[in-house]
């Protein structure tokens, strides 16, 4: 067998032709795993020495060779050969070329099946941390923008119809809450990812005296998998990761949709920096929020990756199957889109202004204070359902007369309910309502200021911890 020939080719009469090699290769996309593959190989090599399966001299040569290969890849001088199929074989072939027999001993006690399962978990640990950092940056951008608008009132919407008045800060902080849930999903997943499958072999483990706990410890895993059959085929963590990315993109798309609508001439609630807009090739007046539209569009690509991955997994017999080679395409795709879109969203949010004068000029349109009026009646002893009907009648009366609720005469109110007194006007107008919220978590000034303080302290703590690591 030549050094260029794969060991498994001894079993087959014919070597794969060029069509077959190009069809089965994954090196074109899994080469991004090189440092994790080398990291896992070094840990495996050190374990082999401790167990007496290779000598200390062989270990030194292997580690030296692997580090040289990593340096070559990072310098851009390493030549990837598609005939090696994947990153594992590419690194191993280069190692054998450098070291000879010591390199041929590296694969003792492991399979490409447990090797790729380990590489993916090592990669995902780092990727989760990258996403957590970018989520934190986006949350901070929202908290800092919210801090500028704790006094200013805007409409909230249900069914895209005006609902109740809120301070702008509360609206912005709603996204901080959404992205915190995304962080929670990633942190939960991190615990399930941080288990080592290395040493599970192709499917059934090994008869050699390998020490799986040692390699797990060297790689920073919290423990080892307990069933080799499951360990090499488990891609639950890949599906969970892609779902977590899909939820991140869902929230980003929701943000994009809001800002696209709010930046339109019809609303004119927000002004997005020209840096993140484009104009038209034909219409010179246009300011198009293309970056936000692309975030909204890219969301579908991540959803597609989740769907493709789930379709792949649902048809897998036990244990490892070559189909799983394709999972990396979808996981990398989801991670790349989520990372890029989070970074862009943080930049957009940091450079967005709310047109408070424009919002204020029409804030009392749409009867935003109707619910507050109903609650005023409740405070006067009127059952809520009855109060609801009274206010509905008042709104209909206002629409006929072209008035706002605050413009109705006291006599008009008293004709609808004897419970109404002169203090009714304190519960009317959007500004009064926004100041009057008392329930925890409400969309008022006091609650928003409390949450801004909470979030800035929490996010600064997260940033400080990451900086120390």
Automatic annotation (TrEMBL):
It comes from Sedimentisphaera salicampi. GO terms for biological process: L-arginine biosynthetic process via ornithine. Residues 367-432 form the Argininosuccinate lyase C-terminal domain. GO terms for cellular component: cytosol. It comes from the Bacteria. This is Argininosuccinate lyase. InterPro entries: Arg_succ_lyase_C, Argininosuccinate_lyase, Fumarase/histidase_N, Fumarate_lyase_fam, Fumarate_lyase_N, L-Aspartase-like. Pathway: Amino-acid biosynthesis; L-arginine biosynthesis; L-arginine from L-ornithine and carbamoyl phosphate: step 3/3. One of its GO terms (molecular function) is argininosuccinate lyase activity. Its EC number is 4.3.2.1. SUPFAM superfamilies: L-aspartase-like. PANTHER family: ARGININOSUCCINATE LYASE (PTHR43814:SF1). It is found in: Cytoplasm. Gene3D superfamilies: Fumarase/aspartase (C-terminal domain), Fumarase/aspartase (Central domain), Fumarase/aspartase (N-terminal domain). Residues 11-304 form the Fumarate lyase N-terminal domain. It catalyses: 2-(N(omega)-L-arginino)succinate = fumarate + L-arginine. Belongs to the lyase 1 family. Argininosuccinate lyase subfamily. Keywords: Amino-acid biosynthesis, Arginine biosynthesis, Cytoplasm, Lyase.
């Amino acid at each position: 067998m030549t050094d260029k020939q794969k060991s498994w080719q001894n079993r087959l009469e014919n070597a794969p032709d060029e069509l077959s090699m190009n069809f089965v290769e994954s090196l074109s996309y899994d080469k991004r795993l090189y440092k994790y593959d080398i990291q896992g190989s070094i840990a495996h090599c050190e374990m082999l020495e401790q167990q007496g399966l290779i000598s200390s001299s062989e270990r030194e040569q292997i580690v030296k060779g692997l580090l040289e290969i990593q340096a070559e890849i990072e310098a851009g001088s390493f030549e990837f050969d598609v005939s090696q199929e994947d990153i594992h074989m590419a690194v191993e072939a280069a190692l054998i070329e450098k070291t000879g027999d010591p390199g041929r001993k590296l694969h003792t006690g492991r399979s490409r099946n447990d090797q790729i399962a380990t590489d993916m978990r090592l990669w995902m640990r780092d990727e989760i941390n990258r996403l957590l950092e970018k989520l934190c940056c986006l949350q901070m951008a929202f908290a800092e923008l919210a801090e500028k608008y704790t006094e200013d009132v805007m409409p909230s919407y249900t069914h895209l119809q005006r609902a109740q008045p809120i301070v702008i800060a509360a609206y912005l902080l709603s996204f901080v809450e959404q992205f915190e849930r995304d962080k929670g999903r990633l942190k939960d997943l991190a615990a399930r990812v941080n288990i080592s499958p290395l040493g599970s072999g192709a499917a059934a483990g090994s008869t050699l005296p390998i020490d799986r706990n040692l390699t797990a410890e060297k790689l920073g895993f919290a423990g080892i998998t307990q069933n080799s059959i499951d360990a090499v085929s488990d891609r639950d963590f890949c599906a969970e990761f892609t779902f977590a990315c899909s939820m991140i993109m869902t929230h980003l798309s929701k943000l994009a949709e809001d800002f696209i609508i709010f930046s339109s001439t019809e609303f004119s609630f927000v002004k997005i920096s020209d840096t993140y807009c484009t104009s038209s090739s034909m219409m010179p007046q246009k300011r198009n929020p293309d970056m936000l539209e692309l975030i909204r569009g890219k969301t579908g690509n991540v959803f597609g990756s989740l769907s493709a991955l789930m379709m792949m997994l649902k048809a897998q017999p036990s244990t490892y199957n070559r189909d799983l080679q394709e999972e990396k395409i979808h996981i990398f795709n989801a991670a790349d889109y989520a990372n890029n879109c989070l970074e862009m969203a943080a930049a957009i949010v940091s450079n967005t202004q709310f047109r408070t004068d424009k919002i204020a000029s029409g804030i009392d349109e749409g009867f935003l204070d109707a619910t507050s009026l109903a609650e005023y009646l409740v405070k006067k002893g009127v059952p809520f359902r009855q109060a609801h009907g009274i206010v509905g009648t008042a709104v209909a009366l206002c629409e006929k007369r072209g008035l706002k609720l605050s413009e109705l005469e006291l006599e008009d109110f008293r004709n609808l309910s004897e419970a109404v007194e002169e203090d009714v006007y304190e519960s009317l107008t959007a500004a009064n309502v926004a100041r009057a919220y008392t329930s925890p978590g409400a969309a008022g000034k006091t609650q928003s200021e409390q949450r801004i303080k909470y979030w800035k302290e929490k996010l600064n703590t997260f940033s400080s911890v990451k900086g120390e690591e």
